[in-house]
Amino acid sequence: SLSDSPVTLKILQNWVPRVSHYFDKEHYTYVGHQIVIQESIEHFGAVVWPGALALSQYLESNQEQFNLKDKKVLEIGAGTGLVSIVACILGAYVTATDLPEVLENLSYNISRNTQNMNMHKPEVRKLVWGEGLTEDFPVSTYHYDFILATDVVYHHAALDPLLATMAYFCKPGTILLWANKFRFSTDYEFLEKLCNIFNTTILAEFPESNVKLLKATVREN
């Protein structure tokens, strides 16, 4: 199914350059809303990576194909929260998750950008890939329509737990949307493993940024 021709796109310059006293704030515009993201130089997860821009842009442009209104959305490795904020603006019930050390900045960005809007209040929760899933997110209670992940695959040791986490949350009917910058052989190895478990399609490619956006669904026997 990877042979379907993906659409070729360019990441648009959706951020608004401005004179700011803060070197650590980025301003973006998605779905008619200005979003201000505070980045943190201490953590990988606290910088806006190109996959997040690609997925935010794609969700904004493909609302008919992927209608998030009143859907339950889980973002894993939410980082700065940009994608979760965009999903929230699009009307989803969002749960944004990441490692404990990233949560403070993530919570700050999400509350700051969604507090005065008439939308479902997003939730921020700790999620360490592959750990405590059945305790923290029991299947009987938690079912998600969409799993969102951006730039979660890079040089790190947690790729197998990441895959296990995706497999845990992807139930029949769930759509996983994963955008990633592909630069290392490990990225392609992860893609191969993903294709072995899920029905996988490349929805879009952003060649200038080396980003691919993939859709995966669980194989129903």
Structural class: alpha/beta
Q: Give the biggest beta sheet.
A: 8 strands, mixed
Mean pLDDT: 89
Which fold name is given in CATH as the topology? Rossmann fold
Helix content: 25-40%
Keywords: Methyltransferase, S-adenosyl-L-methionine, Transferase
Pfam family, one: Methyltransf_16
InterPro entries: Methyltransf_16 (IPR019410), SAM-dependent_MTases_sf (IPR029063)
Protein name: MT21C methyltransferase
Question: What do these coordinates show?
Answer:
With 221 residues, the protein is of the alpha/beta class. It has a single domain, classed as Rossmann fold. It has six helices and ten strands; from the N terminus they run E-E-E-H-E-H-E-H-E-H-E-H-E-H-E-E. The strands form two sheets. It has an eight-stranded mixed sheet, sandwiched between helices. Strands 2-3 form a two-stranded antiparallel ribbon. Strand 2 and strand 3 (33-38) form a beta hairpin. Helix 1 runs parallel beside helix 2 (82-89) and helix 2 (82-89) runs parallel beside helix 3. The model is unreliable at 17-23 (pLDDT under 50).
In short:
With 221 residues, the chain is α/β, with parallel strands linked by helices.
Q: Descriptors for this entry?
A:
two-stranded antiparallel sheet, 221 residues
Write the layout of secondary structure elements.
Layout: E1 7-8, E2 25-30, E3 33-38, H1 50-61, E4 72-76, H2 82-89, E5 93-98, H3 103-114, E6 123-126, H4 133-136, E7 146-150, H5 159-169, E8 175-181, H6 185-197, E9 198-206, E10 211-218
Parallel strand pairs: 1-9, 4-5, 4-7, 5-6, 7-8
Antiparallel strand pairs: 2-3, 8-10, 9-10
GO molecular function: methyltransferase activity
InterPro entries: Methyltransf_16 (IPR019410), SAM-dependent_MTases_sf (IPR029063)
Protein name: MT21C methyltransferase
